[in-house]
Design goal:
This protein is mainly alpha-helical. The protein is built from 4 helices and no strands. Keywords: Membrane, Transmembrane, Transmembrane helix. It comes from Mycobacterium spongiae.
């Protein structure tokens, strides 16, 4: 039985853990990939004008796919982080870093959906 102030034997709080570092690296890489895709897609779509001849990005299906690419990357990365959370938890590792990475990536996905998709797809859907 543990006394007051004594930590449980499986408590690793304050110890250096490679799982937490891996989760942070994964979250940053996923965020850079997803937001980078959104930025490149926005720059590509910005070349479309009223008399645009760039058929590679100016049609409604192309604009929609370009707008949804970044959120799709963030969603897939978030789901993978939650899968990793379960696997690390099952193996009795430090799972909370992966859990936080999953929620961070899904939050970025919602932000990308709400802030980036309407300006990219909006003019196409209004016509």
């Amino acid at each position: 039985m543990q006394t007051m102030g004594e930590r449980p034997p499986d408590d690793r709080l304050g110890q250096d853990d490679s799982e937490v570092r891996a989760a942070i690296r994964f979250a940053l890489a996923g965020a850079v990939a997803g937001i980078g895709f959104v930025i490149v897609a926005a720059l590509w779509i910005s070349t479309c004008g009223p008399a645009a001849v760039d058929t590679a990005a100016c049609g409604p299906p192309q604009r929609t796919l370009l707008a949804m690419g970044g959120p799709a990357i963030l969603f897939a990365a978030g789901l993978w982080a939650f899968v990793r959370t379960y696997r690390v938890w099952r193996d009795r590792g430090t799972w909370w870093g992966w859990h936080g990475a999953g929620w961070f990536l899904l939050t970025l996905m919602v932000l990308a959906l709400s802030m980036a998709v309407p300006p990219m797809v909006g003019p196409v859907m209004a016509v």
